[in-house]
Amino acid sequence: DYVVVKMIPDNRLPPRHLHSVLTGKTFAVIKWESPYDSPDQDMLYAVAVKDLVRKTDKIYKVKTRNSTVEYTIKKLEPGGKYHVIVQLGNMSKESSMKINTVPLSAPDALKIITENDHILLFWKSLALKESNFNESRGYEIHMFDSLMNSTAYLGNTTENFFRVSNLKIGHNYSFTVRARCLYGGQMCGEPATLLYDELGTSEDSSASKTGKSTDVAAIVVPILFLLLVTLGVGFVVLYTRHRRLQSSFTAFANSHYSSRLGSAIFSSGDDLGDEDDEAPMITGFSDDVPMVIA
């Protein structure tokens, strides 16, 4: 045997299991359950959204009979902080939670161009990828000096470039560019950071130059090595030929000169063949003409 018991609903109970399902830049999806199971009538909820940065409040009303309620809060600001309170319309006990919306993205393609006495920071406009960003809001630029371990606020601009002067030699800097913060340094965009060394080159360009130098070295070094080897082999060949010629000439001179007679010795010409018949015969050298042997 069994019996069905229906409890008397208590409308003073708070909504259950309030949580965030999805958070974007300008919206947040929240979800909760009714104070008790299977409501038998429509229930009116009050959703209060408190902007913790602007110090403003908005109240939305949600009427439903569902046990599980999903609601989207719209018209929020990127990078904002909000306190959400959900309760029944009769001002029952409340459930609350905090929401932080997604900040604006970091500027793309941040790069550095080095001039004679200053550098220029360049980046792409955030309006190209962020429909919620207005160029009139502008950007703010910060600089971190790793040697001094200090961060400086350089200023803000509504342009897509910024000039930086008075950099110290031997210092390494990190530059940060982001959408300008609102309301006392809050609701800021994500920062884009770029390193800059004392030589006036950014990290990206330094890496690029290093890569290019490595590639060039990988090509030049083997070529120089081959050239040195070729020169060495050529020198050895030339030296060997020189030594052979010198030895041959010395041997020829020794075999055709008589130090006893003091004159050169040549054959009579009978064994030279037909081709040398017309060649004049060398009988010797005069005693008063010195013979030079290389």
UniProtKB/TrEMBL annotation:
Give yes or no: UniProt keyword Membrane.
yes
Say yes or no: keyword Transmembrane helix present: yes
- Give the UniProt keywords, A-Z: Membrane, Transmembrane, Transmembrane helix
Please give the start and end residues of each transmembrane region: 216-239
Task: Output the InterPro entries linked to this UniProt entry.
Answer: FN3_dom (IPR003961), FN3_sf (IPR036116), Ig-like_fold (IPR013783)
- Which parts of the sequence belong to the Fibronectin type-III domain? 14-109
- Give the signal peptide range: none
Q: What is this protein called?
A: SORL protein
In its UniProt entry, the species of origin is given as Chauna torquata (Southern screamer)
Species lineage: Eukaryota, Metazoa, Chordata, Craniata, Vertebrata
